Amino acid sequence: MPKTYPFYCAGEWRTSDQPLEVRNPWNDEIVGVTSFATDKDLEDAIVAAEEAFEIMRVMPAYERAAALDRLADMLEERGEEVAELIAREAAKPLRDARTEVMRGVFTVRIASEEAKRIGGEMIPLDLLPSSKGRFGVTRKVPVGPIAAISPFNFPLNLALHKVAPAIASGNTVVLKPPTVDPLTMLVFAEMIDTLDLPKGAVSIMPMDRKTGDRLVTDDRFKVLSFTGSPDVGWEMKSRAGKKKVVLELGGNAGVIVDAGADIELAAKRVRAGAFAYAGQVCISVQRVYVHRESYDQFCAKLVEEVRTIKTGDPLDPETEVGPMINAKAAERIDSWVKKATNEGALLLTGGKADGRFYEPTIIVNAAKDSFVCSREAFAPIVTVFPVDSFDAALKAANDSVFGLQAGVFTNDVENAFKAFDQ
């Protein structure tokens, strides 16, 4: 029998009559079973978050820091267990899942340190004769209950980016983990449950879309923190009311390879940047602009590098690229690539779907408005273009509605600073 994972609501472990099976994208086996929180569960979590906030907001810094340090210790102690769970429910290669756990520990420890230095400022006000001898004092204070929605691709660390700072700053938080891989954060909730925090300080609950939408619209939440797609994020912001909204949305990372750059180094780094976790990373390299004099050499080297990528079972420590999160994701990128090739793009390698797998793919000669170039692919593909100058590369890299990540390979310090500026 698969393990059952209750959800964590207002300091209690609960289940509902709405089961949620979590399946391994690699082999479709059931990893575990949890359930969706109901409207009543969410209401209880919100009320408890409001009540717990009255305790959290006055909790001294050393207690908040100590709680986070303990969480980091427990996560480190259970690191291999959590990494294997990430590999099973998210199909993230085990080597990358272990890295995510390490990053998660680091995130919580940094939050512990920040809890100790959330202060204020003394501002001189004697700028006019009438204000001689006066000064102002500012102080940072907790804002209130936080609604948090985290994505599937980093089921631990991107959720901790929300939960850990909430605790550090004396706020409370209700987290909706991703539906396809919620179990990782439910295991983390087991660690939270051992702490001496007020009940309701943290709730972690899978929710269907209708119930989860209340995280966006309920005015009792003072902050909405969402990581996910741009279309969903901006739509949420438009309906969030007066609450503060923090969005981390998609990317379409551009990379420039300048004339005279180390082609072998650039190819190796693009290999890692474009294909890690099957490209399902918001800062995944998607567009590469190579000076024309190095273009052929770079393409040949990148093809050579990509053909060495080991695909397969995410639990195999040697696997670098596993399946995509579901068949729909693989079908979507397959349709994008076929559309691009029908419009004249060429494949240097890859370009085939096999169930949830999509081959690591290199595309050249794609139209700049093709989906594989202009939208967030979130898939193991990269497009490569020749350019005639560094300035032309900068212009092309900047020709995007996304701005989350960029990279430059150059041995020209002037070009390095020009890229940094532009």
Short description:
This protein is an alpha/beta fold and about 425 residues long. It contains 15 helices and 20 strands. The mean pLDDT is about 95.
List keywords for this structure.
422 residues; alpha/beta; six-stranded mixed sheet; five-stranded parallel sheet; 15 helices; 20 strands; 20% strand; globular
Secondary-structure map:
Layout: E1 3-4, E2 7-9, E3 12-14, E4 19-23, E5 30-35, H1 39-56, H2 61-77, H3 79-90, H4 94-115, E6 120-124, E7 135-139, E8 146-149, H5 157-168, E9 173-176, H6 183-192, E10 202-204, H7 209-212, H8 214-217, E11 223-227, H9 230-239, E12 244-248, E13 253-257, H10 263-275, E14 285-291, H11 292-306, H12 327-342, E15 346-349, E16 353-354, E17 357-358, E18 361-364, H13 371-374, E19 381-387, H14 390-398, E20 406-409, H15 413-421
Parallel strand pairs: 1-5, 8-9, 8-11, 9-10, 11-12, 13-14, 13-20, 14-19, 18-19
Antiparallel strand pairs: 2-3, 4-5, 6-7, 15-18, 16-17
Helix pairs in contact: 2-4, 3-4, 4-5, 10-11
